[in-house]
Specification:
This protein has about 180 residues and is α+β, with helices and mostly antiparallel strands. Helices cover about 50% and strands about 25% of the residues.
């Protein structure tokens, strides 16, 4: 075994992961871009249909201006809306008792694979299955195994910066790119 970490996560850690995933991760940025492009397409289509069906007049120009203004407001507030949506989703999960994380686990990193041990459950992952690793705000590492799920490893699990640097180097020797977000 190369590394072993006793991981303790809070609801805030899970919320932070979901916010990072939606707004800052490569996956979330692509989704955000796709949503924005879809709304641009819909807006242009609506404006064209409206002008063709109503003819060009002052009323039509005013209606198109209202649609464009509404669209711009939506684009500006989309990240805030997504934050609110994520918080609401996590609150709903908490209410049903089906949180998407385990508050306590042990992560063990071996030469060829990693093991996460949680109460009543053990998961083994090959390093080849890791899609992405993100070091976020020098607080936590997200080890993505799919585009929507990741192991969360708070930096508080490391005894020193030397151990952290060694761990990141270890992941890189496995061909895993580590992205840093400040």
């Amino acid at each position: 075994m190369k590394y072993q970490f006793d991981v303790k996560l809070s609801e805030q850690d899970y919320l932070d992961f979901n916010l990072f995933h939606m707004l800052r991760s490569p996956y979330g940025k692509q989704q955000l871009k796709n949503i924005r492009l879809m709304f641009v397409f819909v807006l242009v289509l609506l404006c064209v249909i409206f002008v063709i069906s109503e003819g060009f007049s002052k009323d039509t120009a005013f209606s198109v201006a209202v649609m464009v203004t509404s669209f711009l407001v939506f684009q500006i507030f989309l990240p805030k809306f997504l934050k609110w949506s994520v918080k609401l989703t996590v609150k709903g999960q908490k209410g049903t008792g089906k949180m998407g994380y385990s508050p306590e686990s042990i992560l063990e990193f071996y030469d060829d694979y990693l093991i996460e041990t949680m109460p009543g459950k053990k998961i083994e992952q090959n390093y080849s299955e890791i899609e992405n690793v993100c070091l976020v705000d020098m607080k936590i590492i997200y080890i993505y195994v799919t585009n929507v799920s990741a192991y969360m490893l708070p930096l508080s699990c490391f005894k020193s910066k030397v151990e952290l640097d060694g761990f990141i180097g270890f992941l890189q020797t496995k061909g895993i790119k580590v992205d840093r977000y400040c």
